[in-house]
Amino acid sequence: xxxxxLGVVMLALSLSACGSNDKGNQAEPAAVKADxxxxxxxxxxxxxGGNLQGGEGPNLQKVGERLSEEEIMKRIQKGGGxxxxxxxxxKEEELKALSAWLAGLK
Length: 106
Ligand code: HEC
What we know:
Distance between the termini: 74 Å
Shape: rod-shaped
CATH superfamily of one domain: Cytochrome c-like domain
Bound molecules: heme C
Number of strands: 0
Number of helices: 6
Helix content: 55-70%
Strand content: under 5%
């Protein structure tokens, strides 16, 4: 009898723990919203440099003068000419944030 009661208490505790966990997960996407500079650091810095100055890839400091947001987005998705395609590795939200940020660099 005692053990049964303990079991019920444990179950209730673990359920409530799960409940609060779910709430934490729900709040997360808003907290880690994609932003251009962060995505750049994670995926592009190795070839385009810490200050977008270029290296293995071309300088991107004024890429917005040469290419529109849409062109930049396509370039990132498809890669080519030594640049790998990022269609799969980037989420749409990250791709958009990154392209918009780069297109604004003039
Ligand atoms: C493995 C190295 C490498 C990585 C990683 C890389 N690039 Fe590139 N990127 C290049 C090379 C090389 C070129 C030049 C290709 C060419 O000459 O056509 C290029 C070209 C570009 C261009 C066109 C520039 C222009 O003036 O025409 C853009 C925009 C660009 N990269 C953005 C990015 C972004 C954003 C990322 C991260 C998601 C990224 N690249 C990651 C190597 C890389």
